[in-house]
């Protein structure tokens, strides 16, 4: 009997389903598997994600653009046709705690305000300040009288959150920082953990959790930051056995510049341990006023840094602090790469971003400028989290031992994504390939 129309469709669909399950049983030892990440298909020799199973109607529609495709479960080296192709997503390979961040955690609180709110606290519509005593009632006011939007922030924690989002494996990242014992601490922890970050906050009962209020008026943002307990992270907390075990577990350690003046003893202890155990140390200059710490011969931070981030202004200031006799970012990058290192098993990579200007990359003897592809202005909502997102995307590939070019591509992708949201925010799932 010849099968036609809907019967033929049902026959092919059922056959395909049975074939997939048979192959899954042969390779993995079980019949059914509900994918957590979604199916992956090969189209035009490029891996792409598809949340629909290949035999479902939507899955067939997704693949209809190309006849030659290979459905792949999110399990390494699992494929259906002969000539198995390796799943290079790396998501199933990354271990828990592979990436550790240490920085100043802040709860980002964003509200839509008006001029009267700015006037009440003496704020400007497009400015950033450190909160003083007259500004403290602002935080309670926006929480109780407005509709706040919360994010787990602080530059280093932003980057860790973005890396966690890109990795899509819960607890692949961990984060240390100081917080108070208040309502803001609870919100901060919830917002970090909902992305999948394993947070280990040092709680200071007599201090307030650090927070940053962003008041949006039209296209402007007025930022008011209270660092609070973030300035009080201690070396003693870090070295508690249950906490130090996360340092020992991590392959890559990302330390923000802002934490250096807060707890330089803790920073140096981590750097020395990492160099002695061949772990990758990543640091960020983060601000021009912090560059003096990276040039301080007593701290000698640069000796332990494997990957250094900064922007053009920070690079110039760092060059001055180091006494370099040239001004171009490329020359500063080249000289920075060649500075002495404690761990000779690893080379040094230096990445200096310049906004819309080219990113300067130093990798061994190779120093080059990489053009930045601008985002359509109509899509831009907030540029504040772009730098943090770039670092987070970069780290998500570095911790998987991908090439520097892959790291840069992921960093650019994360920055282009975050720039389309308010704050350092992103969609539920990345579609980076």
From TrEMBL:
Domain of life: Eukaryota
Keywords annotated in UniProt: ATP-binding, Kinase, Magnesium, Nucleotide-binding, Purine salvage, Transferase
InterPro entries, A to Z: Adenokinase (IPR001805), PfkB_dom (IPR011611), Ribokinase-like (IPR029056)
Pfam families, per the entry: PfkB
Domain Carbohydrate kinase PfkB as annotated: residue spans: 122-427
Enzyme class: transferase
Requisite cofactors: Mg(2+)
Molecular function via GO: adenosine kinase activity; ATP binding
One GO BP: purine nucleobase metabolic process
Coiled-coil stretches: none
Known pathway: Purine metabolism; AMP biosynthesis via salvage pathway; AMP from adenosine: step 1/1
Cleaved signal peptide residues: none
Known catalytic reactions: adenosine + ATP = AMP + ADP + H(+)
Protein EC: 2.7.1.20
Family: Belongs to the carbohydrate kinase PfkB family.
Name assigned to this protein: Adenosine kinase
Organism annotation: Pinctada imbricata (Atlantic pearl-oyster)
